[in-house]
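Look over this one:
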Amino acid sequence: MNINDLRVLNLGNNRFHGRIPFTLGALDQLQTLHLRNNSLTGDLPSSLKNCTKLRMIDLGENDLTGNIPTWIGTHLTSLTIVSLRFNKYHGNIPPTICHLTNIQILDLSRNNISGKIPPCLNNFTSLAQRNGSTESTEVMVPDDQIFPCAFNLHWYFDDILVQWKGQESRDGKIGLVKGIDLSGNNLVGTIPQEFSDLRGLLFLNLSRNHLTGNIISDIGEMEMLEWLDLSNNQLSGNIPNSLASLNFLSVLDLSYNNLKGRIPLGTQLQSFEISAYEGNSKLCGLPLPKCPGDSPGPSQTNSSKGNIEEDDGFITREFYFCMTVGFITGFWVVVGTLFLKHSWRYSYFNFWNKIGDWIYVRTTLYAKRFKRKFLH
């Protein structure tokens, strides 16, 4: 095998120290580069510009420094996955990164990146598409080209460690996941309104920065969002009503900002724990305490129901009391009259004697007819 024809290089989770060798740029057929979880230092060698077929770079959890190279966006335009998380990169996010129209995952979290978020991120065509029309990150590699680890597999499925819904997850079918994670940096300014164009985005994490301004009003346009984390910033204003229309949202964290007003009503937003909204002292409405001027809360409503039940109980006891007194009074009026007046007493008992005789006669006749009909 000619090493220059290598397509997959997996050196992740080792104990390599020092800088990334400049000679790596000679691997111009390289499609996947895994160097995650080492102790690599310095910056990326510019020779990597020659690896124009790269579709995935995972350099997370190292000690890489310097600025994010501008040539990533101008030369490595086939990239679908870029992970530089847990490094020491500083400076701004280069606007040239917006040229990566096929990007599916951009993870720059836990660095020292500053400046504003480039508004041109809506150039990420694959993130703007709701369907799965983007290319898979599956790479066909002959057995002898998986280097240096002999996996003895005909197909190599790229995997990447992503922060998915608050937990680190290694996804073997990363083509199904689309997201941006810029958390844990020093980003400032507002959230670009252009984010609303990314309708295929599944997760967006901008937490632990210094972002200001309002949550974008059209955030409901990002209809595929399942995880949204904007916590620990300085966002202000109201929560936009369109956020309540995100039907797939299962993880939400807006805590520790300066948000105010009523939480928009909707089955989604009321279903989250209080912790998703805590640290916003001027925020109100379910699941937080009610807003001023709201109708009585559940506790007051229950109390009112209790009073009604108590009133019903009182009426019921009064009713039974009156019924008992009426029965006793009526009984003794009838019995007392019969006891005192002889003619009435005679007529009363004579009436019941006649009724008894009639019943006896009718029963006897029916019994004889039954015997003649069925027993003879």
Remarks:
- The CA atoms of residues 52 and 76 lie 5 Å apart.
- DSSP finds four helices and 24 strands in the chain.
- Helices lie at 71-75, 125-128, 298-340, 342-374.
- The first strand starts at residue 8 and ends at 10.
